[in-house]
Here is the input.
Amino acid sequence: MNRMISLGLFCLLAVGCATNPGGGSGNGNVNGNTAGTTVEVSIDNSAFTPASVTVHVGYTVRWTNHQVGVPHTVTSGNPGDADAGALFDSGAIEPGQSFSLTFTEQGTFRYFCDFHEEIMRDATVTVEP
Here is the structure.
């Protein structure tokens, strides 16, 4: 009997976890440690929303361009730096398209839009263990 209750409780917890993998708070910060989790960043009104996200090693960030008629990029670094785009560069993300990147190392990764570097800059992905 105890074994059945324990199994039922395990299944209930597993279903609860599956409906909210990683326990994300919805603001771009992921609190759990679930491999394969994807965090969404929206590109619209010439802004990255949220501008900063915190994830764990192995998580994927997906940027989706929702701005009608305007392509954007997700380019690592700071505008004007010699190594801008060295770590990652999406190329043009057309409206309705997405760019995804899985982060395999911890650290803070700054990025910007190469087409609109004056107004779309200083965004970050912070990757924790």
Q: What stands out?
A: The chain is about 15% helix and 30% strand. The longest helix spans residues 2-19. The longest strand covers residues 38-44. The CA atoms of residues 4 and 10 lie 10 Å apart.
